[in-house]
Amino acid sequence: MNSPPFSSSEFVIQRNRIIDAHRQLILEIRELEPEISKLSAARDPRWRELEQKRGALVRQIEPLVEEYWDWVPAVKLSRCPFCEQDLTRLFDPVDLTGFWWMDRTQRPRPEPPCCQHFCLLLGAVNLNGLPPKGGLFECRPGPDVPYVIARILEMPTMTAVVSRVPLRCGYSAYPAAYFAAEPPGPRAMTQGWARKEYRFSSGENKTGWDIVRDKRDYDLSPWILKGKLRWFHDGALGRPGAPPPLVYPFLNVQGMAREQILIDNQLRYAYSH
């Protein structure tokens, strides 16, 4: 099997160039802003010159953001347990410094088409003992071990599928895709993976948003035995209801089982919910 294009060094170099250029712009802007405020408060006319310089830097950000989203690859993350169609989503498989993980920019590219059963994508990221590395803005990649949301998984026909995607930096991402044969009701889901808000359609071409505080369940064995949790591993779906210790490949992932919050190279854990 040929390697996917996002595994090539050239592909990663292109992406890192964008991230590094964006980081440098933000640092330069942050350096200018206190001086602009100081000069402006003192009614020193030099603040206008610095403000023009700041504006020129700001105008360079949007093209970089657009270039990044043009770069983001469509990655196979899971497989539907009902129709067995692969689930492909836009995803940054390099590290946690990309905009995909920080939820700070709009997404100008639509997601690839998916089957009618797909409902939601959640996930976790395990750093595998490596040093934390994030971007200049807050990143919430999920906890460090896979989990499910009982409220959603208890919905009729709802099934979650956990998989593993190795990131280029050495971390392990664990997507958890939710599928249902019966469509869930309106506003029944929650904010997606690494997203801060749950955006939904409220009818008549109207949209809304919410922040849903769902409790996470890290005890996966009962859900596996019920046939509500399956896995996608080595190109195949795990069979429903199989005894977890025998076949579930992600049962013993080690971690804190708490939400990770990463800013730059500083990692902290949020309170459990």
Describe this structure in words.
The chain is of the alpha+beta class and 273 residues long. It has helices spanning 9-41, 46-58, 61-71, 99-102, 150-153, 221-225, 244-247, and strands at residues 74-79, 86-90, 118-126, 139-142, 148-149, 159-163, 165-166, 172-179, 198-203, 206-210, 216-217, 229-233, 236-237, 260-263, 266-269. Strands 3, 6, 7, 8, 12 and 13 form a six-stranded mixed sheet that branches. Strands 4-14-15 form a three-stranded antiparallel sheet, with no helix packed on it. Strands 1-2 form a two-stranded antiparallel sheet. Helix 1 runs antiparallel to helix 2.
Brief summary of the model shown:
With 273 residues, the protein is an alpha+beta fold.
Describe the secondary structure blueprint for this structure.
Blueprint: H1 9-41, H2 46-58, H3 61-71, E1 74-79, E2 86-90, H4 99-102, E3 118-126, E4 139-142, E5 148-149, H5 150-153, E6 159-163, E7 165-166, E8 172-179, E9 198-203, E10 206-210, E11 216-217, H6 221-225, E12 229-233, E13 236-237, H7 244-247, E14 260-263, E15 266-269
Helix pairs in contact: 1-2, 1-3
What is the end-to-end distance? 41 Å
- Using the alpha-carbon principal axes, give the shape: elongated
Radius of gyration: 21 Å
Unreliable runs = none
**Protein structure class:** alpha+beta
In percent, how much strand structure appears in the residues?
Answer: 25-35%
Number of domains: 2
Helix count, DSSP H or I runs of 4 or more residues = 7
Into which percent range does the helicity of residues fall?
25-40%
The succession of helices and strands, N to C, reads HHHEEHEEEHEEEEEEHEEHEE
For the sheet with most strands, the description reads:
6 strands, mixed
Number of β-strand runs:
15
Give the overall average pLDDT.
90
